[in-house]
Amino acid sequence: MVENVIYPAYLDAALSRSEGRRVAESAAVEAPTVDEIAKAVQQVGYDAVIERDKRYSREFETRGRVLVNNADDATKNDIVQAVAAYVGILRD
Questions:
Q1: Rounded Cα–Cα distance for residues 7 and 16 (Å)
Q2: Tens-place pLDDT, residues 39-89
Q3: Phi-psi category of residue 26: left, alpha or beta, with phi > 0 → left and psi -120 to 50 → alpha
Q4: pLDDT tens, 10-48?
Q5: CA 73 to the chain's CA centroid
Q6: Is the pTM of this model over 0.85?
Q7: How many CB atoms are located within 10 Å of the residue 72 CB?
Q8: Which residues contact 43 (CB under 8 A, 6 or more apart)?
Q9: Helix or strand or coil: residue 35?
Q10: Cβ within 8 Å of residue 58, ≥6 positions away
Q11: Separation CA 36–CA 48 (nearest Å)
């Protein structure tokens, strides 16, 4: 079983690539939450587990992270790109 981790910093439009953003600025959103990310992961078709007490190593604040389970058929980059698109749709 492959388990991928998605931190809110991966999708945060306020951060640069060197600060941890992994998607294009046009696909990023302002201050994404783990709840939005988990909902988007479930929309993509994977199981999501929220860990609120975890912190991304490049940040000082604790924003949590989302574990993506049963994602054997996709790469981490594919999952992050799809989740970013769904978070953008959820915000509209």
A1: 14
A2: 999 999 999 999 999 999 999 999 999 999 988 888 999 999 999 999 999
A3: alpha
A4: 999 999 999 999 999 999 999 999 999 999 999 999 999
A5: 18
A6: yes
A7: 8
A8: 86
A9: helix
A10: 9, 19, 20
A11: 11
Give the type of residue at 4.
N
The 3-state secondary structure of 48-90, one letter per residue:
EEEECCCCCCCCCCCCCEEEEECCCCCCHHHHHHHHHHHHHHH
Alpha-carbon separation of residue 10 from 1, 41, 90 (angstroms): 22, 14, 17
> Residue 21 to residues 1, 60, 78: CA-CA distances in angstroms?
26, 15, 14
Listed residue (19, 10, 13) closest to 63, CA to CA = 10
**Locus of tokens 């860990």:** 51
